[in-house]
Write a structure and sequence with these properties.
5 helices, 4-stranded antiparallel beta sheet, alpha+beta
Length: 180
């Protein structure tokens, strides 16, 4: 599932919206500015280390790299974020296993970003007659869950005013160079 972001007339000043409606080139410039604002935001988020302190997976960098080139249409400009896992952070939701019976949630830095299948000596930890985790020696590496709720991340996307400012700045530079 990809995230679709559309820059519409009500996202910018009325004068700029009027000019953009008559100039596909201006819309394209505004779309590129929107994409660049998204990429910059995702790269900034990627600089934050993970909570477990394990090897970085660079998730937000992958999201930045998945931003599509802007597509100009009649009503605005569309930029897609084509990363398969970005939408769960933007909207939140429930995740359940697709290929296994349980999700393996890493709880050790050594397990972060790795499938339990890469470890050959993991053993199940049982409680109440059911598996609750996977351990290596005495150290718990994964907790097993039937599903998890991923909360909506309010910082998953940049603030609307940041994008608006970037788009307006790019449009003004374009118009100045065009002599408008």
């Amino acid at each position: 599932m990809s995230v679709h972001l559309t820059l519409k007339a009500d996202s910018v000043t009325p004068d700029l919206a009027r000019l953009a409606s008559r100039s596909p080139a201006l819309k394209k410039v505004m779309g590129v500015a929107m994409r660049n604002a998204l990429i910059s935001h995702f790269r900034f988020k990627n600089a934050t280390p993970n909570r477990l302190g394990g090897t970085r997976t660079n998730f937000w960098l992958a999201v930045a790299n998945s931003c599509s080139a802007p597509v100009v249409n009649g009503s605005g400009v569309l930029v897609r974020i084509n990363h398969p896992h970005a939408a769960i952070h933007v909207y939140g939701g429930h995740v359940t296993p697709k290929k296994a019976n349980m999700l393996a949630i890493p709880v050790a830095a050594e397990a972060h970003g790795k499938s339990p299948r890469v470890f050959s000596d993991l053993r199940p930890v049982w409680s109440g007659g059911r598996p609750v985790g996977l351990a290596l020696g005495e150290k718990m590496y994964y907790v097993l869950k039937k599903g998890v709720r991923i909360p909506r991340d309010p910082q998953a996307l940049p603030q609307e005013d940041q994008v608006r400012q970037a788009v307006t700045r790019a449009a003004r530079i374009f118009l100045r160079r065009q002599g408008s």
